Amino acid sequence: MQQKIGVLADVHGNLTALEAVIADAKANGVTEFWSLGDITTFGPGTVASYHLLQQENTTVFLQGNWESTYFEIEAGEPIDFGNAKDVAFLAWMSREYAAFNQSEIDQIRQLPIKRRVERAGLKIDLMHNQPNKNYGGDLSPDAPQANFDKVFQGSDADMAIYAHVHAQIMRCDNIVYEPYRMHRILNTGTVGQSYQLTQQGMIAQYLLLTLDDIVGVASADFRRVNYDTSLEIARAQQADWPFSESYIRMLKTGQFTRDADSLAADKRFPEYQAQAQSFYQQLKGE
């Protein structure tokens, strides 16, 4: 018996890209989804993306580093309101907190950064980034082999799947020849921020994993799907999304810039700065 699972991550508020991924996955026989985190922020569709995944038999949700930042800010992480990156995150967070209900925020707060799934005789470790942290670049595409070997230290997993670095990757740890064994390490790529353009627009990425009760992994298909960039731009404009200039520039050019100088150049920066300060005071109960 075979089962097809859509493994996805890093939606980053891009509802249009997520809709295209889900449509492609279902057209290819996927009946279950695993979400490895970072559904939130940058684009305007965070809350709608959570709701859509909940409707589509998503059996795994993980907490990415951007979700974790919600709760680090709630816990009192210092904010520099002169730094446009801090201002941007708070401006986006304020919109998302206004749209989520409290029980949904509490559910996200409780999500793990790693989860073990056992299917088709395999023990599969699902992670947003690494087993013990959901941030950092230790598993970037050009990272040394030693970093990937650490994924399985102290673990009896047969395979690991992670996200975070926005690149579709297939690696393995060092092969043990006696007895022969290889641990697969797969990366889903990113739904919402691939930075890859075609003549039809931006690309969304995900992993279509086919599991078989006899052979284990029958296939791992790194899918790339076009989506309607103009629709996502219209959604950002209709929502009057904070710092939408940077978001729309990414959708049009494939270049993602979230540096402080670029964000601070937004003509509405003082307005967003005031909104961020007000929201932060509300979080602190002031």
Automatic annotation (TrEMBL):
What's any one GO cellular component for it? cytoplasm
Origin, by domain of life?
A: Bacteria
Which Pfam families does UniProt cross-reference here?
Answer: Metallophos_2 (PF12850)
The Calcineurin-like phosphoesterase domain extends over: 4-206
| Any one GO molecular-function label of the UniProt entry | phosphatase activity
UniProt family annotation: Belongs to the metallophosphoesterase superfamily. YfcE family.
Q: What is this protein called?
A: Metallophosphatase family protein
Taxonomic source organism: Leuconostoc pseudomesenteroides
